[in-house]
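Escalation from tier 1.

The customer reports that the assembly of two entities below gives different structure tokens on two consecutive runs. Tier 1 could not reproduce it. I'm attaching the input and our single run for tier 2 to review.
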Amino acid sequence: MAARKIPRLARGVSPPFTALNAGSPVVNMKARIIITPKKAVLDPQGKTVQNALAHMGYTGVAAVHVGKFIEIELTGSDSAAARPQLEEACHKFLSNPIIEDYRLEIE
Amino acid sequence: MHFAVLQFPASNCDQDAVHALRLLGHTADYVWHKDTSLGQADAVIVPGGFSYGDYLRTGAIARFSPVMQAVRKFAEEGGLVIGICNGFQILCEAGLLPGALVRNRDLQFHCEHIFLKAATPNSPFTCQIPADKVLRVPIAHGEGCYFADAATLAQLQANRQILWQYCNAAGALTDEANPNGSLQNIAGICNERRNVAGLMPHPERACEPILGSADGRLVFESMIHTLQTKPVAKAA
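Tier 1 run:
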């Protein structure tokens, strides 16, 4: 029995990797934003997690605060230029300064 | 009177609001969130729902919709704007109302009838609500716990901007009657100028006896009475 010929995809028929790469720009920096509820705001989620930890036998937990973590991938490489824009976005949109604090890290 | 009822992706009380207003003998049109005009509206309703899936924070993304620019301008010109439930959250995020709405203190979504009463008749949204009248109106929210810092809260009190408070059936402002942990049992407030208001309960779902209560009519009747007695600028 003659060996079956495995059809080969002609070059160019398979996904064009150049085009794929064009759709996902190179990431040079990452901004990490940690958002936590302000101390004065009721944090029932943190309290519930704290109670659950105590229930599971973990001791020495004084308080738990549940917040959010946002990672933003950036194409530029100038962190000094990116910072003021990110600070503005954090203040205006990503966090609500009435109820939340945020910490911005760029690397 | 003619009302503009906004529609965001995932608004779900827009139809209830339009139905209630038509029931009261007035006209109402939907205004899509991408529209930049409110039409010839005498008043605006920002309805309840889960705009943009409540992503990031409730109301955080909806506030940047093109239509909100028109709402801001309308409010600055003195037009009446009321936000109900998610609409209240959107108006707070937009900075048109002070404070914020956070997760209910028991972490549960509350879908039930509650009691509330007007804290003052001195507003376009409460002027037709008799003093000490206990309203029975439904709530349906997970993030309805009103928060403002101490200075803001003091200002709200000094200016009589607290419009509605949760109470028990007898009208007492008790902690048990507070479904979500809101400061001072606050169910709704208005801005300093008193032309923008927001509340978590749904008056539009309590406008006919077949729905269990018609008490919600009083909120819309207050707005209509205000519009009919002292005309304010129409939306462009």
